[in-house]
Amino acid sequence: MGSTSAQNHEGLGRRDLIKRSAALGLIAVPTMSFLSACASSGGDDAGKDKPKGEKTKDNPFGVAKGGKIDVVVFKGGYGDDYAKAWEASFNKKWDITATHTGTQEITGKLQPRFNAGNPPDIVDDSGAQKIKIDVLAKNGQLLDLAEVLDAPSVDDPAKKVRDTLIPGTIDAGLQEGKVVALNYIYTVWGLWYSGKLFKEKGWTEPKTWDEFMAICKEATAQGIGGLAHQGKYPYYINVAIMDLIAKKGGLDAMKAIDNLDPKAFVGSAAAKEAVEAVYELVEKGYLMAGTNGLTHTESQTRWNQYKAAFITCGSWLENEQLKQTPADFDMKFMPMPLLPGSAMPYEAIRAGSGEPFIIPSKAKNLAEAKEFMRMMLSKEWSTLFAKEANSLTILADGVDPSVKLRPGTQSTVVASKAAGTNTFRYLYTEWYSEMDTEIQNASNELMAKRIQPAEWLKRAQAAVDKAAKDPASKKNHRD
Amino acid sequence: MRKGQYQFVTGFLFIPVALYLVFVIWPYIQTIGYSLTDWKGQSQTFSFVGLDNYVALFQDDVFLGAVWHNILFLVFIPVITILLALFFAFMVNAGGRSRAGGVAGVSGSKFYKVVYFFPQVLSLAILAVLFGAVYRSDTGGMLNGLLLKLGLIDAAEPIEWLNEPDFVLWALMAVVVWHGVGFYLVLFSAAMQSIPRDIYEAALIDGAGRAQSFFRITLPLLWDSVQTAWVYLGIVAMDMFVLVSTMTSGDYGGGPDHHSETMSTVMMRNFLYFGKSGYACAMGVVMLLLTLIVSVVTLRATRRERLEF
């Protein structure tokens, strides 16, 4: 074999050197990251040596020009073009360069960063792989957003940001008494139908549960299903059950569930009637055939093909189904019909906000992140969002009239105007992941006719009681 | 060996061992450490809780149910897969009516081998989508559509395959078996072809039938391969995460109502969704122990005297 410098034994040969340094490097790199991952102290060096801008009315957080911001957004039904448009506008105003990440794998990408104390500056924490807000909050990883909400609004510095929002929309971000997530998109939940199908069949929007059942009966007789739901994800049928409970029993019935009342379900007349009403659909065979096992896209597409009269969903439905919806489908939203003797009027809807934006408490560029969020709640950025993502934001009158809305979104605007202050919003889904999952499981069994309403109530109550025993649950309460 | 060569060899051994320590052993040690804490998974603040997580684990009905499902998988997946693979492999290699000594495969056996191997080239994710369409719960599903055409079901009441508590485990098992048989068929075929033909011919002359030559000759000489297959399939049965989490309902699968739960799905849900990461680490440790036990037991129980040929 040829002789190389490695084979003379005077000192370190070239090959040895390369070999050893490579080995060192291989070990050193992961070890370093482990060490830094394990170091739980010393996270407070955020922005220590950074230049600070002067705090003024137009610059309440003291943002300096020429800085950086690290933005991560969920790239789901709304895409991420809106965020890119925001970042461009942010750069124009503050000369701040944004690192943009659009992804569906929020947990996979961000969990290690949270653990290492190196999170991004602002995150749209959404989608199937979002990090649960209650989990992040319990770990002290979220910034209290009060500072942003109390800052002067971009459009009208005389007003605070929180006074420019649709009432009630920031409640969804409450954890342990603080707003730690800004749910940015205005969402309504309820039933949806095709205006075209209803016109053809001569049906009108049912206002009472009896009228609703009558249409389901007629539809079933004609070979169309009555109600479709996204069976693989029982979240959606819970919208129907829980909305019926709230409308029948009023806000108190809803708050009893959120506040983990020992009689939230068992012993609640509203809950009993609501579950029995939904079960009647199952018993009488008014569900779209096979809907219990379908995914959200499968069942929604069947509904778009006129295989069912109604479906339960939130207002992202139209954007999600854009490609599958026939041009003349005329998508329409309606509130949940009323059970006899309901406490709330028919117009009452579950309304609130979705798509939570968070600022990690250990973000490196806190001032920039806060300013970014403040600008999200300006008319300019809200209109950018409506244009790119086809949806409304929680900013009151936040969309420029020049933006034309689709029929489904338009019908939600009409419905929320009619509802006025008669809106409600459950918070247990954001507060108690485990309880939510268990109630969903029970609903799945109910819809498949494997348990009866009495058993559903028992199981839902058991889930509530279990959550109430968790010491962390004492911190959440709503009045 | 000269002195320099020792250094050279040690240098090269050092790297793989170090890599193994850092990327395999150290994470395990970390997991064991975390399993004794109430770590919530999103920050490095936690406190030591001793064996609390393990105590809770043995009172957790969902997890215990999942263990039971894994055991069912462990019993049925290897047995069914290996039996089918052996049967097909024997047919392909020695099942034909050949005039020349009776030890040829059925006609077209090369073609069958390729066809049988096909499922193996599909990734599990594709498999999940594929069988999602087969098991779809309305009449748009392949199975339901077929049954409807045959007049066996009513269009208003299709079978919700993956939403049937009594059926969901078997539906999942069918997918794994379908996926695995082809691979083990090829593995067993290769082993069978290395068995000398004159042994078969001698048996044939002595008047052995097909069954006899299989049980007396083929199977004993194939034992090493069967043993390997058993261990691999046992590990598959202990995991099952991809299929269960994508095909069944619930966060990370496991539905309906925990009827298809496996240890890995319960673990992932607790780890990422409920923020009970310390608890999930305890599950991980239990899974590690069970998998180790299964591998050791399988290797021991299937040990036979080695036959030489």
UniProtKB/TrEMBL annotation, chain A:
PROSITE patterns: TAT
GO cellular component terms, A-Z: cell envelope
Sequence ranges of Basic and acidic residues compositional bias: 45-58
Claim: Transport is one of the keywords in the record: yes
UniProt main location, coarse: other
Short name of any one Pfam family annotated for the protein: SBP_bac_1
Gene3D superfamilies: Periplasmic binding protein-like II
Protein name in the entry: Sugar ABC transporter substrate-binding protein
Organism: Streptomyces showdoensis
UniProtKB/TrEMBL annotation, chain B:
Bilayer disposition of the protein: Multi-pass membrane protein
Domain of life: Bacteria
InterPro entries tied to this protein: ABC_transporter_permease, MetI-like, MetI-like_sf
Keyword set, alphabetical order: Cell membrane, Membrane, Transmembrane, Transmembrane helix, Transport
Residues passing through the membrane, by range: 12-29, 71-93, 114-135, 167-187, 229-248, 277-299
Keyword Nucleotide-binding: no
One term under GO cellular component: plasma membrane
Ranges where the ABC transmembrane type-1 domain occurs: 67-298
Name the UniProt record assigns to this protein: ABC transporter permease
Similarity comment text for this entry: Belongs to the binding-protein-dependent transport system permease family.
GO BP: transmembrane transport
Cellular compartments annotated: Cell membrane
Pfam families in the cross-refs: BPD_transp_1
